[in-house]
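Person: I keep going back and forth on a fold encoding question. Show me how you would write down a chain together with its backbone fold. Please set it down just below, with no commentary around it:
Helper:
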Amino acid sequence: SLKLDTDYATVAYDAIAVVVHPQATDSLFTMAEIRDLLSGNSKKNLIPVLDGVKATSTVRFMLDSVLRNQPLGKNVVAANSSREVIDYVARTPRAIGFVGSSWIGNIDDTAQVNQLNKVRLARVESTDSTGGFVLPVQYLIYTRTYPMIRSLVYVQKGKQQGIAGSLANFLRNDRGQLIFRRSYLF
């Protein structure tokens, strides 16, 4: 309504990781199974857990890209944060949690390693080979082999350079990209 020009670009990619209880019997999922779980139409006796029911990037991705604008099922449990998703899955054998890969992907962060030791990372069916199941790692995000990838986009109001424009340039260039690489994003 203000008719301002905007500048935006994708500066990195992240993935939605699927975590299950360490003793879960099933840790391989197709996108159809995940869609059925989130919509409440699954025959599996699993409890999907998200970091809220609206207004988080994970929930938004699930609604837009996985469920394709269908509502979440009444079976979906809302935790208050990604850390709580992991804690819920760790204490609930039938739970299946969805968190950003940046919450479990950094093997150099002892807090993340401790979180990941409480749960097991599930594999999702590969986009390039039927029957192949993959984890959300940087290379598979890069090749788009992992199916649940989301973009990290900056949006700048106006096209003036200023401080915001300088930050955007920094994030797009080599030194800024090292931050994303170090965070195990692509």
